[in-house]
Amino acid sequence: MDTLEALPLVGDVAARLCARGWRLATAESCTGGLIAAACTERAGSSDWFERGVVSYSNVAKIELLGVPAALIDTHGAVSEPVALAMAQGLLERAGADITVAVTGVAGPSGGSAHKPVGTVWFAWATAAGAHAECRVFPGDRSAVREATVRHALAGVLARSVPL
C-alpha cells in the first residue's frame, strides 16, 4: 500500500487528536504496521502518535498485548474477543488515549467458510470503553490491507469527536 494515499484521512485524524490532546496507539496483525506507517508518514506525528505494535503471531498478541491464550484458543485470532482484548491491552500498556486493533485474514490463503479471505475484526478503545466490528473486504491481499488501514483510521476519527 502506498501510505501517501491515506494522508488526507491521516490529516483529519491528526487534527482531531491534537485538538483533544490525545495520543493514538495501534495494535496490528494483518496490516503488519501499515496503520502506524500511514500515521508516521505525516510530519509532526510525534505530537499525537504514541506507538504501534505489530502482533502478527498469537504469541505476540499474548506477550505484548496481554490477550488471554484461552480467547485465541476458543475464538481464534480473527475474532471479536481477540480484537477487543488487543485494543484494551494496548490501552492499558501504551499510555495512549485511543487505540485501534486489527486482526484478519488478508489472503490469499488462510480463509475458511466461517472467516473468508478479507475478514477483518477491528476494535477501538478509549477510557470510555471499547467497540468492535467486523468487515469483509473484497480484493487481493493488498486491497484488503489498504481497506483495513482506511477503515481503522476512519474509526479513530469517529471515536475521537470532542465532547
Describe the overall structure.
There is one protein chain. The protein is of the alpha/beta class. The chain has a single domain (3-159), classed as CinA-like (Maf protein). It is 43% helix and 21% strand. The chain has helices at 7-20, 34-40, 58-65, 69-75, 80-94, 141-159, and strands spanning 24-28, 49-54, 98-104, 119-126, 129-136. Strands 2-1-3-4-5 form a five-stranded mixed sheet, with helices on both faces. The protein is globular and about 45 Å long. The model has no long low-confidence stretch (mean pLDDT 94).
Topology of helices and strands:
Layout: H1 7-20, E1 24-28, H2 34-40, E2 49-54, H3 58-65, H4 69-75, H5 80-94, E3 98-104, E4 119-126, E5 129-136, H6 141-159
Parallel strand pairs: 1-2, 1-3
Antiparallel strand pairs: 3-4, 4-5
Provide key terms for this protein.
163 residues, alpha/beta, Maf protein, five-stranded mixed sheet, globular
Could you give the count of β-strands?
A: 5
Quaternary structure type? single chain
Structural class computed from helices and strand pairing: alpha/beta
CATH class: Alpha Beta
Please state the overall shape, judged from the principal axes of the Cα atoms. globular
Instruction: Evaluate the radius of gyration.
Output: 15 Å
Which stretches are poorly predicted, pLDDT < 50 over at least 5 residues? none
Tally of contiguous helical segments: 6
Order of helices and strands: HEHEHHHEEEH
CATH fold-level assignment: Maf protein
End-to-end separation in angstroms reads: 34 Å
Main beta sheet strand tally, sense and closure: 5 strands, mixed
